[in-house]
Amino acid sequence: MNKFEKNVQSKNNDVIDAGLAFVVGFVALTVIYIIPQVFAIIAG
Fold first, then answer.
1. What are the two backbone dihedrals, phi and then psi, of residue 7, each rounded to the nearest 5 degrees?
2. d(CA 42, CA 36)
3. Of all helices (H) and strands (E), which one includes residue 31?
4. Does residue 35 fall inside a structural domain?
5. In a domain, 1, yes or no
6. Distance between CA 31 and CA 22 in Å, rounded?
7. Which of 27, 29, 35, 42 has its CA 20 to 30 A from that of 19?
8. In total, how many domains does the chain have?
9. Mind telling me which residue stretches traverse the membrane in this protein (predicted)?
């Protein structure tokens, strides 16, 4: 066992972190898509 495995900084579950990153990325891309659609509807 190396020294990094002995001294773990974060004991969080990686699945939770990956899921949170997916949700945050999905929401960000959704917002980037929705904002121009709102402007297109208002302008049209």
1. -115, 80
2. 10
3. helix 14-43
4. yes
5. no
6. 14
7. 35
8. 1
9. 20-43
Copy the structure tokens of residue 28.
């960000």
1 is written with which tokens? Answer: 């066992």
Q: What are the structure tokens assigned to 2, written together?
A: 């190396």
pLDDT for res 9: 79
**What one-letter code names the amino acid at 12?**
N
> pTM score, two decimals?
0.65
Query: Using one digit for the tens of pLDDT, what is the confidence trace for 3-43?
Result: 777 877 777 888 999 999 999 999 999 999 999 999 999 99
What residue numbers bound the domain in which 38 lies? Answer: 15-43
Q: Which two tokens stand for residue 11?
A: 């004991």
- Domain assignment of residue 37, yes or no: yes
